[in-house]
């Protein structure tokens, strides 16, 4: 399986500004977590810095972070994670005139391949393109497909089955979600309900709103999701499948989470770091039916990977019934290498499964 990714456009290194640019400036941090006033905020685009008269690409450029030199290693980190004596890249311009250059038109015709306005029809051509990319990334030795999932994905039996089959066939390498998605998925496997509603018949059970709390309670009693799955009480579901396949999953907590489940990260910075670790490996990101997690993941996914000494884009897909959600993800990615499907999770999962699994 092949997929023709857009060709990367190298900067014009003969440009007068880039030729005459000074070396980039680094300023020492005086207090943990406090940036010098001239710090540069990273973008979704490929960025180059100039040191000792030579331009070098930031290979793992996490967007909306700061570029830090620590123990002679240059990396992008969350601003809150800077430490005293770290050296922070400082520049007010990113056009190369101050030792940093952001390549804002890096790939041929990318804006034509991925529509800027995501509220158009979710037609078969868009599905076919995603199917081709998924097949390529699955077969590629460097492929790493990260899915960001909301609770709506597990409220319906057929959607859960479709997603589990995609997991089994290698179209999902990692899952990012919140407490709610994992809770209701486990509830479905434990009590055959999601928020007290039967996942097969959609019938509401009397006092069914207790079911997700009973599910959380059982997991907490046993000490972990893994122990809950291994107990045999969870009959099916995405989380059970992830445990069985030893697939990474990160559950980032929110204010007022019920429970939460034992592995949910309550510390925001910890959850960001865990999500970034997965997204930094991603060659494709698909977010489904979760506005806040989708925007969060999109804002932490580098727009490019260096594979076999070649730069290629990292595509972000966002699927949601809310036009605002789809457009928000596009905006945080600066409308670049991102595409939206304006549809519900059930229809998307069902159609994608049919096209991937003949």
Number of helices: 12
Which fold does the CATH topology of the largest domain refer to? Rossmann fold
Question: How do the SSEs run, as a string of H and E?
Answer: HEEEEEEEHHEHEHEEHHHEHEHEEEHEH
Strand content: 15-25%
Distance from N terminus to C terminus (CA atoms, Å) equals 16 Å
Helix residue percentage = 25-40%
Main sheet characteristics: 6 strands, parallel
Counting DSSP E segments of at least 2 residues, the number of strands comes to 17
Please write the CATH class name of the largest domain: Alpha Beta
Instruction: Say which CATH homologous superfamily of the largest domain is assigned.
Output: putative lor/sdh protein like domains
The Cα radius of gyration reads 22 Å
How many domains? The number is 2
Unreliable spans are: 116-120
- Derived from helix and strand composition plus strand pairing, the structural class reads alpha/beta
CATH architecture of the largest domain: 3-Layer(aba) Sandwich
Going across the biggest sheet, name each strand in turn: 12-9-8-13-16-17
Please, could you describe this protein's structure?
The chain is of the alpha/beta class and 358 residues long. It folds into 2 domains: 16-102, conserved putative lor/sdh protein from methanococcus maripaludis s2 fold, CATH 2.40.420; 110-356, Rossmann fold, CATH 3.40.50. Helix content is 33%, strand content 20%. The chain has 12 helices and 17 strands. The longest helix has 16 residues, at 124-139. Residues 116-120 have low confidence and may be disordered.
């Amino acid at each position: 399986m092949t997929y023709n990714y857009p060709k990367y456009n190298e900067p014009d290194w003969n440009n007068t500004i880039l030729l005459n640019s000074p070396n980039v400036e680094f300023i020492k941090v005086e207090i943990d977590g406090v940036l010098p006033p001239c710090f540069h905020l990273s973008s979704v685009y490929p960025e180059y810095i100039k040191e000792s008269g030579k331009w070098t690409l930031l290979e793992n450029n996490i967007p909306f972070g700061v570029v830090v030199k620590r123990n002679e290693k240059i990396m992008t980190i969350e601003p809150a994670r800077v430490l005293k004596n770290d050296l922070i890249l400082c520049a007010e311009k990113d056009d190369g005139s101050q030792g940093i250059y952001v390549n804002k038109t890096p790939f041929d015709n990318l804006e034509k391949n991925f529509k800027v306005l995501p509220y158009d029809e979710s037609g078969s051509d868009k599905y076919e393109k995603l199917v081709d990319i998924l097949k390529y990334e699955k077969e590629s030795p460097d492929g790493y497909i990260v899915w960001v999932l909301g609770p709506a994905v597990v409220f319906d039996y057929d959607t859960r089955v479709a997603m589990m089959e995609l997991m089994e066939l290698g179209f999902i390498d990692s899952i990012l979600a919140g407490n709610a998605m994992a809770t209701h998925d486990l509830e479905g496997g434990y009590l055959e309900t999601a928020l007290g509603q039967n996942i097969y018949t959609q019938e509401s059970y009397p006092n069914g709103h207790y079911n997700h709390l009973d599910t959380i309670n059982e997991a907490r009693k046993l000490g972990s999701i893994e122990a809950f799955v291994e107990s045999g009480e969870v009959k099916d579901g995405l989380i059970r499948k992830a445990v069985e396949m030893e697939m990474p999953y990160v559950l980032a907590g929110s204010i007022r989470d019920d429970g939460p489940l034992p592995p949910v990260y309550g510390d925001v910075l910890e959850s960001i770091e865990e999500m970034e670790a997965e997204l930094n490996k991603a060659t494709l990101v698909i977010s489904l039916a979760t506005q806040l997690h989708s925007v969060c993941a999109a804002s932490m996914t580098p727009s490019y990977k260096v594979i076999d000494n070649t730069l290629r884009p990292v595509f972000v897909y966002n699927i949601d019934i809310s036009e605002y959600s789809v457009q928000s993800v596009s905006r945080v990615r600066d409308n670049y290498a991102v595409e939206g499907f304006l549809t519900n999770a059930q229809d998307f999962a069902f159609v994608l499964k049919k096209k991937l699994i003949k």
